[in-house]
């Protein structure tokens, strides 16, 4: 049975390493879950889990393969900006984030190329594909992390050259949507304000339940066009 979420529900959005370990965990509240996808709000001060080394130093700046080859652990930090609205469209190989610096003031969009979402009762899991698109409020856009994407192409932990071409094609499809000004780049949610009763979202007790995701998501043309669904017991 497909998992769906109700507005206001606390969920986690987890990005996974290729070996299945949690890379980052974002704590959020559900804005909407409908035919457009799952929209969540990550408010300022919400808990964010990121990898650190054994001395507690963040490892995000390290090359991905180097980070995976060393012992790391997840440590809590906080979402710093006013808030971020993230839409994960159903069946897509990407997510779109609206970044706000102050209430109702859009800084721009951030498109993250990733595997189609794996849903479970506590939230969603995705594998990151490195390549991103930065979009200004006037819809001017530019690529981000192209070198990282190229460096990971062909590595046994990541994707082949053929798979990279599929990821790039998906990204180029999104850029055409940006240029046309189609949803979600049509002004929707650009002045979004969260429910007045929503404060920072804390880390729920079930945030690290074992993932149902496979150790690696194959990148195929079909896989980037379909949404995977998974269920497990309702978190307590």
Word description of this protein:
Strands 1-2-3-6-7-8-10 form a seven-stranded mixed β-barrel. It is mainly β and 236 residues long. The longest helix is centred in the last third of the chain and has 20 residues, at 161-180. Helix content is 14%, strand content 36%. The protein has a single domain (10-198), classed as FomD barrel-like fold (Beta Barrel), CATH 2.40.380.10. The chain has helices spanning 64-68, 146-152, 161-180, and strands at 10-16, 22-34, 37-43, 47-52, 73-78, 83-88, 94-102, 105-114, 118-120, 123-135, 141-144, 228-229.
Short description:
Keywords: Hydrolase. Residues 78-182 form the DUF402 domain. This protein has 236 residues and is mainly beta.
What keywords describe this structure?
3 helices, FomD barrel-like fold, seven-stranded mixed beta barrel, 12 strands, about 15% helix, about 240 residues, disordered C terminus, mainly beta
CATH class call = Mainly Beta
- The geometry reads as globular
Please tally the helical runs, counting DSSP H or I stretches of 4 or more residues: 3
The whole-number mean of residue pLDDT values reads 88
Measured distance between first and last alpha carbons: 19 Å
Estimate what percentage of residues fall within beta strands.
35-45%
The quaternary state of the protein chains shown equals: single chain
Round the Cα radius of gyration to an integer and report it. Answer: 17 Å
Organism: Actinopolymorpha cephalotaxi
Domain DUF402: 78-182
Protein name: DUF402 domain-containing protein
Keywords: Hydrolase
